[in-house]
Amino acid sequence: MRARGKWPLESVVVRLTHSRVYAKDCLDCVVRDDTLLDRIDTAVQLSGALTPEQEQKLMEVAHKCPVHRTLKSQIDIREVPVS
Q: Quick one: 27 exposed, middle or buried, by C-beta within 10 A (0-12, 13-18, 19+)?
C-alpha cells in the first residue's frame, strides 16, 4: 500500500506567459506559414525536499490535468445562445 500525502511538498507555483508567434518561427509546428499562433509558456516550481523521482511523478500528474491537456490541444471555442 502506498503512503499518500507524506511527500514533503511545501508549495507549487505555476507561471503562464502568453505571446503571439508566427507559425514559421515555431520549430515544432506542423504549419509553417505567416499564421499567428497563441503560445503559452509554462513554468512550474515545486518547493520542498522532494527527490528527483517525486518531482518527476508530480510533473507527470500535472501533464494529465484536464486544463493542461486542453491548453495543449487545438481549441474550437463557439458562442452559443442561452436557452
A: exposed
The span from the CA of 56 to the CA of 4, in Å, is: 16
Gap between the Cα atoms of 18 and 20, Å rounded: 7
**Contact assessment for residue 52 and residue 46, using Cβ atoms and an 8 Å cutoff:** no
Of 44, 41, 40, nearest in space to 62 by CA? 44
12 vs 10: CA distance, rounded Å: 7
Per-residue pLDDT 10s for the chain (83 aa) are: 455 568 999 999 999 899 988 888 777 777 777 888 888 888 999 999 999 999 999 999 988 888 888 878 877 788 999 98
Distances (CA, A) of 17 to 2, 51, 64, 65: 36, 27, 20, 18
Closest Cα to residue 44, out of 69, 11, 5, 18? 11
